[in-house]
Amino acid sequence: MTRxxxxxxxxxxxxxRDPLGRPLPYGCEGVPPLPEPLPHDPAVAVxxxxxxxxxxxxxxxxxxxxxxxxxxxxxxxSMWQGLAQLxxxxxxxxxxxxxxxxxxxxxxxxxxxxxxxxxxPALDTAVVxxxxxxxxxxxxxxxPIPTDLRLNSADGSVA
Length: 159
Prior knowledge:
Elements: H1 42-54, H2 58-71, H3 77-94, H4 98-112, H5 125-140
Helix pairs in contact: 1-2, 2-3, 3-4, 4-5
């Protein structure tokens, strides 16, 4: 089977996907693809990722955050990697893969523990830290991690 790729060999989003990022057969209607190219500006990317999280599309939110990880300033890469991993942890939880959710949650916590002193204004690290603490406590208690990941306050503002 050939994969959908652009002229540079980069994978494309031509195959339909379900809300959790699983590929669907060609011809099926999946969720709308992400905009190409993905935003590199946190002021655009973080609200887009939050909208995707809020609409049950954490896998796509991970793709947006992963783009910031790949292209962002070196001193912020572990932060973006950790946030992308949180979105994947939520994806695993929603797919029913609790061990995968737990592993990614722990990796994310380690990366976020190395975050820079100053995060971009679109991101509320206090909100993320509160969510992460609750998710770790749930995981420690053998409970499913919460799937309501927040990157900023519910109204989109930051502290």
